[in-house]
Amino acid sequence: xxxxxxxxxxxxxxxxxxxxxxxxxxxxxxxxxxxxxxxxxxxxxxxxxxxxxxxxxxxxxxxxxxxxxxxxxxxxxxxxxxxxxxxxxxxxxxxxxxxxxxxxxxxxxxxxxxxxxxxxxxxxxxxxxxxxxxxxxxxxxxxxxxxxxxxxxxxxxxxxxxxxxxxxxxxxxxxxxxxxxxxxxxxxxxxxxxxxxxxxxxxxxxxxxxxxxxxxxxxxxxxxxxxxxxxxxxxxxxxxxxxxxxxxxxxxxxxxxxxxxxxxxxxxxxxxxxxxxxxxxxxxxxxxxxxxxxxxxxxxxxxxxxxxxxxxxxxxxxxxxxxxxxxxxxxxxxxxxxxxxxxxxxxxxxxxxxxxxxxxxxxxxxxxxxxxxxxxxxxxxxxxxxxxxxxxxxxxxxxxxxxxxxxxxxxxxxxxxxxxxxxxxxxxxxxxxxxxxxxxxxxxxxxxxxxxxxxxxxxxxxxxxxxxxxxxxxxxxxxxxxxxxxxxxxxxxxxxxxxxxxxxxxxxxxxxxxxxxxxxxxxxxxxxxxxxxxxxxxxxxxxxxxxxxxxxxxxxxxxxxxxxxxxxxxxxxxxxxxxxxxxxxxxxxxxxxxxxxxxxxxxxxxxxxxxxxxxxxxxxxxxxxxxxxxxxxxxx
Length: 636
Known about the structure:
There is one protein chain. The chain contains 15 helices and 33 strands. The protein is an alpha+beta fold. Strand 3 (123-129) and strand 4 form a beta hairpin. Helix 3 (70-89) runs parallel beside helix 5 and helix 7 packs across helix 8 (273-292). The model has no long low-confidence stretch (mean pLDDT 85).
């Protein structure tokens, strides 16, 4: 009887315990994640975002089907598990609906047309059913809805493909990132503006196409000029172009030569309209270029950066005038963010088509003193590194697999490079931390321990011995050299205490813009390479096509043409850090590296791991059986 009472008590206690656990779990989500980087848990910024959702968000999931093969069932299960976790942290502000578009055969076509117009694309997955290979249409996407706003999220690429383990891993790694990115787009009240500076021969839109496209996913991206030719000259240039063309016609010329091209003016004694417009435009540009050479004809705009949240200065080659530097300086004093991508040394590789060697030359953009005042010094040097990328030779010879002037660098000491692939630089300069005060400095990129520093050098493809750091003794105590710095704090103005001429004092005395000697808390990033965001081009069927920054263009057409560089991820992390959009940074770190086994451990300890996997389960089961028998005998 006593045994029955004890058993009943234990049974009731167990039911009560399970009931309390169930109540607790309905209010608090708990998951045990034993991975080193907590890959299967939501990040802290994601949880905070979900906790702070103020309005209900509808989540329509279209990855649903009756006869999914095993691979698609895995994707479906992974998505449901992650969405359940999202819902648990959202305080019931996420309403999730799983929609099978093919459930109602009559309305299926209309439903698919509707979500296609909302931004989702179908995927056509190759599957084998009943020993037949066929294509299965899958709508692997989500649409987030709040009020009248709908944000589509494409989880699988459109088009036709076969699902493999790599696609499954990529799908799983990107679920959280894509949904959070969608939620941010859905709930934001306005988009921040990023401006690429123009007017100093910076990288143009074509050369920065890849990173601009990435930034456009979340920000407004535009260009900005701090100074321009006075408006009166544009009006005069039109009159000059018309009169110049008329003078050619008046003297009886039937053609005109522009850069060795002969342009015919007449067709059956009638002036060719296209020729007239082309030649007039040529005269207009020549007139404007001539006027720009006189600084007195240039007008600076003190309010040029008023609508800019982050300014990108990418590879300038022409000097900055004091008035332009003043505009940037006061933009920083008011809390503006700047990403400086600055070359100190110019190496024109195109000259190696016809020359055996070229000399590196110092670029006189006159930003040195300004950056020094803020706490960073970009040195007039070039860093070569034993860890480097290939180069496509300009002289048409075979590519060089190790071009020491293209270091591939990283840093494990900051969140912006956490699990990010190495960043490819070209003719990069070292960046020193200088000065003291209230500015915090963090190294974002640095060389390896095997590097060499050139103050000025010749560059050639033939003799690489002098460029290879491994050919020279490296001191044991030699530190890695910084190549990028994050500066955070309150900055002193570059113009504080400076003597200026009368014209400059008049310029800065504008009552609408009050001079500030010290900034409010803000941040900037200084990188000693302007090519970090420069994309290359490859020729595809006669068309020049930009190469995404993650790929090495010299491997195009080979099995090695796969993502290997972290340039775009790093720059996106930098921009998000500067603009306070930190929630996406830890998510990008989960999307890069496959979790591979240690090849060395597999080779050297092969027998150990085989025996461990073979006998450990058996021994564990045997010990458990012995313990059960022992405790049962002791109890009864």
